[in-house]
Amino acid sequence: MYDDTIAALATPPGKGAVSIVRVSGAKALTIGMELAGLRPSPRHAHVCTFRDKTGLPVDRGMVLFFPGPRSSTGEDVIELHGHGGVVVSDWLLSQAFHLGARPAEPGEFTLRAFLNDKLDLAQAEAVADLVDSGSRAAVRAAARSLCGAFSERVRELQSALTALRVRLEAWLDFPDEELELDPHGDLDAGFGALSELLERLLGEARQGAVLRDGLNVVIAGPPNAGKSSLMNRLAGYDAAIVTQIPGTTRDPLREYLSVDGLPVCITDTAGFRTSTDPVEAEGVRRAQRAVEHADRVLWMVDVREDLPAEVTRAHAEVAGDVALTVIRNKVDLVPQGPGLEDHDGLSVIRLSALTGEGTELLREHLKVISGFGGESSGTFSARSRHLDALLRARGHVRAGLEQLKEKRALELAAEELRAAQGALGELTGEVTSDDLLGEIFASFCIGK
Hints:
The chain is an alpha/beta fold. The chain folds into three domains: about 5-120, Probable tRNA modification gtpase trme, domain 1 (Gyrase A, domain 2), CATH 3.30.1360; about 125-210 and about 380-430, Four Helix Bundle (Hemerythrin (Met), subunit A) (Up-down Bundle); about 220-370, P-loop containing nucleotide triphosphate hydrolases (Rossmann fold). The chain is built from 14 helices and 13 strands. The strands form two sheets. Strands 8-9-7-10-11-13-12 form a seven-stranded mixed sheet, with helices on both faces. The relative contact order is 0.12.
């Protein structure tokens, strides 16, 4: 698909011990030989002197050559290792461009690996997930996906689906051949086993998606309810300014935390109230906007206030489609201690942001509402598009079973299986589109 040569910096820009320029494509070896002044042996590190066009030395480093197809991209790949620094890395990169390479697009090295069958699409996405991981658990999950754990589970499901589809279509195409197939019992059992595999994979994918994407939580409520104190308690240090003066918090303040491996973005917001101060009014407006984009809103109130009235206010301030938990703060000032209760289907947590009593209940609550069950040895990284494809596959399998049970329409059941296979094929890239590839790889950093 690609016959040109690309180059990019594979290490972060700026000062460092080493800078690496990566070149991939038909001209990679020629460019490496020109810059290093030697012909590198495959998969050997050669010490060399990088010289400019007049022959003057610019840097002393190393060159490595990985001939295709046994390379990371499936093409000839050259790596130029120089001393870290903007000048040296920029010079090496500019010389590679001068010798026939072009600047790589975001994720283009990984895209070429995918197009040359070095990685499937799920593994390629795991590369970006590994780079963006916010916790050690997320790193391990992304590494498992990169090693093919997710892809192997998808292939197992595809294999079971194919076997069922082959049996069904063979019976449809050759009804007079006395094939061993009971269109009632055998197919019911096959669909049941397939549904069980799909449910198990969907549950594991949900866990992986939570581990990758985490939870976006916004602390909101009236002024002086203790929102900033709770932020500081969860963060473990004084991230927000805390005073007795209402309206202290103006701009939303974000902190990224790990709750037993669950990535959580906590946002502290200005207190919800009407204000004539234009700065505070702008802070309230920004708080409302943060609430609209939250996965979960922690509506914080004083435990001494009337609970039904505060719940009514919370529902009035928070949009109906945003999940809500009420936090009753300052239990250190009342006889009733910390706890978790249900109020008309709404979770209510009593705690003290000042002393820390009850905050462990909140941490457990966040894990429960996100569906996070902790990392297991089989947890792999997953994305929202993976969940969407699995849900569509499950829908087709269920529709096929319905066609089989209620209408005995075997042809329609077979068509639903075909559609389920198409949805699963999107996970690994067997079925894909240029638009989808562009969207996925655009999120990668340049040089990956």
